[in-house]
Amino acid sequence: MLGEYKDSGFKEPPFLARRADGQVLQLPRLLYLVAASSDGSRSYGQIAEAVSEQFGRGVSADNVQTLVDSKLRPLGVLAAPDGSSLKLERPNPLLALNFKTAVIPPALVNAVTTVFRPWFWPLVVVAALAGFFALDWWLFFVHGIAQGLRHLVNEPVFFLIVFVLVVLSAALHECGHATACRYGGAHPGVMGVGIYLVWPAFYTDVTDAYRLGKGGRLRTDLGGVYFNALFMLGALGIYLLTHFEVLIAVILLLQFEMLHQFLPFLRLDGYYVIADLTGVPDIFARMKPVLLSLLPWRKPDSRVTVLKGWVRIVVTAWVVLTVAFILYAYGVMLLHMPTIVGTAWASFVDLVGGASIAVQHGQIASGLFSALQLVLLALPILGLVWMLVRLVQRLVLLAWVRTRGRPLHRATSFLVMAAGALLLALAWIPPQGNYQPISPSAHGTINESFDNGGAVFNGVVRLVPPLRDIVPAASPSAAPSSSAPPVLPSPAANPAASSSPAATPAASPTPSPSP
Amino acid sequence: MSQLQKAGLSTEELEAQQGEQLPDREQMSLINANVAAPINAAIALNVLSDGSVAYANAEQTAPISQSNLPPPA
Question: ipTM of the assembly?
Answer without folding.
Answer: 0.74
